[in-house]
Amino acid sequence: MTLFRKILILILAGSILPASAQVAKRSSVTLQHGAHRLGRRTDPAMARWRAYGLGQFLHWGVYAIPGGHWKGKYYAGAAEWIRSWPEMPKEEYDNLYKQFNPTGFDARAWARQAKEMGARYVIITTKHHDGFCLWPSKYTSYTVAHSPYQKDVIGALTDAYKAEGIDVYLYFSIIDWNHPGYRASLNTPADRQAYEGFKTFTRNQLLELLERYPACKGLWFDGTWDKAWVEQAAFADSLETELRSKIPGLVIGSRFRADENGKRHFDSNGDLIGDYEQGWERKIPDNIQQLNGNDWDCVMTIPENQWGYHSDWKGHVKTSTELLEMMVKCNAMEGNFVLNFGPDGNGKIREEETRLAREIGDWMKTNSEAVYNCGYAGLEKQDWGYFTRNRQTGKIYLTIFNRPVNGKVRVRLPAGRQLRTVRELKGATLKTEEIRKQEYFIELKIPAGNIPQVLEMELSEGSSSGKEEEAKT
Ligand code: H79
Q1: What residue ranges in 69-208 does DSSP mark as E strands?
Q2: Mind listing the pLDDT tens digit for each residue in 188-228?
Q3: Where is the signal peptide (predicted)?
Q4: Among 80, 230, 302, 320, which one is least packed by beta carbons within 10 Å?
Q5: 365 shares its domain with 379
């Protein structure tokens, strides 16, 4: 091919690329270990991930035994961090596994409850920062196999959730306070040598997990911010490729690896590393612009910051309507909402969590149509709540969290779109009134209550008939 033809093809290719990819072409730095792809994944496995809407997070480990207390003292931090508390003798914590015997654990009961709540996927802690493994890893003795319980918790959960039709994702912490080679930073040649052993161990464990649990759809990494790990761009990049080769379609977020300049989540060119933005922990973006068109998840705790079991929650505990609002807000901005549960040391899910799961599930039974496979509707956010749009059917939903005192929802539409009909889900068509050009009232029928109501709206092309009466000011 002549050089001229090559240049011509490049120019033509540039003009047909989607806008997002063209923006990404601004990149100026050549990277060995940056983003592997520009723009969203378009394969069926990722479409499946995108459609979940609601997920469950499970934090379970030996930290559930002290449950935020030690020798009568109250630990105010996140319960799964109790080992790092000066009041907690490390030696004693590292022997807690000898008491791990959750006789009340019933994987099927957890899975049923998650199903009833409406969760479409679950993320399970295989190993948190303390290093304790809920599966019988060959590469350390600090596992459930050496506890009095002995049985494979990850195996039981994987089977039980799969049986309920809930996709399983495995959480894995790179921070490992139990492994002798783990370091937060590498300051001496001895540190570097020790860390090489830790890297081999990490690779072995991850490959082991994917081999043992091939139904796993993705990995949710945590504890990747320490300098020692951030410096492993080449290793982490090739490991990610290796992991992906084991399970086709494997979903891995932006938290796993940094680029060679130590940039995390977004590489040195600002491009997302991994399949989705994984930085929304206990927080939700204000608007869709903040997400730059990327897939993303939000992982949320029920109290302010407790993931593992803490027997004595302090501060605000979210209600089911608050959680539902967070979920729909995420969905409306194309995100998945993942709600955390921290079962106790005996394997029971606490009463507060069970009640919330039931309340969310009750709502989902009638309204999940506005959640599953629903994303951004292309309409501006309005005061009463959130628009969502089903990616397959194109149906547009309104979930009303702030019911106006006049009982009417005010909907503004962009130029060129007209409101055709609005109805309750499986219910009556509602009366609408055109207030002015591109602006309508929808008269709600059901009385005000504390249940967020969902409506389905049909639009048609064309402008509304109302006269434009712009006041001169
Ligand atoms: O697994 C959950 C957390 O334990 C983990 N990510 C979620 C999914 C996480 N690890 N670190 N962080 C979140 C952020 C760091 C928090 C800390 Fe603290 C601030 C560690 C020490 C001070 C909060 C307060 C936790 C312990 C005390």
Answers
A1: 69-70, 73-74, 121-127, 167-173
A2: 999 999 999 999 999 999 999 999 999 999 999 999 999 99
A3: 1-21
A4: 230
A5: no
The answer to whether the CB of 307 is under 6 A from ligand 1 is: yes
Counted domains in the chain: 2
Q: Which domain holds residue 446?
A: 375-461
Task: Give a yes or no: residue 469 inside a domain.
Answer: no
Q: Which CATH number is 432's domain given? A: 2.60.40.1180
Q: Where are the beta strands (DSSP E) in 295-448?
A: 296-300, 335-341, 374-375, 385-390, 396-400, 408-412, 417-424, 432-436, 439-443
Same domain, 393 and 355: no
Assign 473 a pLDDT band (cuts: 50, 70, 90). confident
Let me know whether 332 and 399 are in one domain: no
Q: How confident is the model at residue 7 (pLDDT cuts 50, 70, 90)?
A: very low
Write out the two tokens for 34: 């940056």
467 located within any domain: no
Atom index in ligand 1 nearest the CA of residue 225 equals 11
Q: Residue with the nearest Cα to atom 4 of ligand 1?
A: 80
Establish whether residue 221 lines the binding site of ligand 1, counting it when its CB lies within 6 angstroms of any ligand atom.
Answer: no
Q: pTM score, two decimals?
A: 0.94
Complete DSSP assignment for 16-85: HS-HHHHHHTT--S--SSS-S-SS---SHHHHHHHT--EEEEE--SGGGTTTTEETTEEP-S-GGGGGGS
